[in-house]
Design a protein that fits this description.
about 350 residues; alpha+beta; 6-stranded antiparallel sheet; 5-stranded mixed β-barrel; 7 helices; globular
Length: about 350
């Protein structure tokens, strides 16, 4: 380590000193909550819920951050602390950045005409972490969003500032080496152990932990609203139909059909063996979920094909729900494309 470099522990002490310092104070949203922006958001998201239109409209809760964004021109009310923290990380070689996750809490609906203000704080800086992307520090900011001076929601945003992991360099070939006459060291060197890549881990949080607990017990659990009894999937903290936060679960029967699908050829991902089928499965209960379709060649999957739930042990730590084409499905597959055409108009595709 050269004399200009900072030891990791010393750097972390300097980074941690920024915890609790403001990232923005008394920020002002560039626009009040308004119907045109709500309409654009709903059209982009495909959300036609009646609560978001008409005289008594409210804004979709997940728009919370949209009202605080500065656009291409940015905000002038950001504090210098966040820029100082970023510069400190850049100077230590952590020049790359990737957003890792966000968490929102909604305290009251936002309505057209609400004037938005916000305060942001550097909530935490992690010790140095090593990831597959590289080594760096996670930085979490918390933004409190106020509507007409009343706290309406909280938005936590986490990034990783990191130095990209170096790709292993290929050793230069010796001039005398050839396939016919390899060097003695190459002849004697043992074959490196084959490391099987792991599947990506699912993101488990307080909103969906119950679903994954069900998977571990070989149960596919679907949320049911405690007020209007509407079933929903994926798991959400509140009902999209009536807004209720009360819910319980029902166990899916495991029967379903292929509503739509894609065949993945490219790009290749470690731990996956393309081509493979990713299906949008419509469960017998009426909700849909994304999962793999197995038990049938990728080019034989058809819309409308009956499938049945099973649980796939991926490795010692991970088990996933997948859907296998059952006996009846195989019969439909062998019947040819005419049977698939009769199943429905939805588009099939390859990716």
């Amino acid at each position: 380590m050269s004399g200009t470099e900072t030891a990791p522990d010393e750097l972390y002490e300097r980074l941690a000193a920024y915890e609790g310092r403001p990232a923005a104070t008394a920020g002002i949203g560039k626009d009040a909550v308004n119907l045109p922006m709500i309409r654009h958001w709903c059209e982009a998201m495909g959300d036609a819920h009646p609560a978001y239109e008409g005289p008594g409209a409210v804004a979709p809760p997940t728009m919370l951050q949209a009202w605080t964004m500065g656009g291409l021109s940015g905000h002038t009310d950001r504090s210098g602390a966040y820029d100082e923290l970023s510069a400190l990380l850049d100077g230590a070689g952590y020049t790359s950045v990737v957003a890792t996750d966000c968490e929102q809490e909604y305290l009251r609906p936002l309505r057209p005409g609400d004037a938005i203000t916000f305060d942001a704080v550097i909530e935490s800086v992690s010790p140095r972490k090593t990831t597959k992307l590289g080594t760096g520090h996670f930085v979490t900011t918390r933004m409190d969003v106020l509507a007409d001076g009343e706290l309406a929601g909280t938005h936590r945003f986490r990034i990783l500032k990191y130095a990209p992991a170096a790709r292993p360099a290929k050793p230069a070939a010796h001039p005398l080496e050839s396939a016919a006459h390899p060097p003695e060291s190459a002849v004697r060197a043992p074959e490196p152990a084959v490391v099987t890549p792991r599947r990506p881990r699912p993101v488990i949080n307080r909103d969906n932990a119950g679903f994954w607990e069900g998977v571990a017990a070989h149960r596919l659990l679907v949320q049911r609203c405690g007020d209007c009894a509407t079933l929903r999937f994926p798991w959400l903290p509140g009902c999209a139909d009536c807004g209720s936060r009360e819910w319980d679960t029902v166990e899916a029967s495991g029967a379903g059909t292929v509503y739509s699908y894609v065949v993945m050829h490219h790009p290749p991902f470690p731990a996956f063996d393309p081509p493979y089928t990713v299906g949008l499965i419509e469960l017998a209960e009426g909700v849909r979920m994304v999962s793999n379709v197995v038990g049938v060649p990728y080019d034989k999957v058809r819309i409308g094909m009956p499938v049945r739930l099973e649980f796939l042990r991926v490795d010692d730590e991970l088990e996933l729900p997948v859907f296998r084409a059952d006996t009846e499905a195989r019969t439909e597959v062998e019947a040819g494309p005419e049977a698939a055409a009769a199943a429905g108009p939805e588009a099939e595709g390859e990716g």
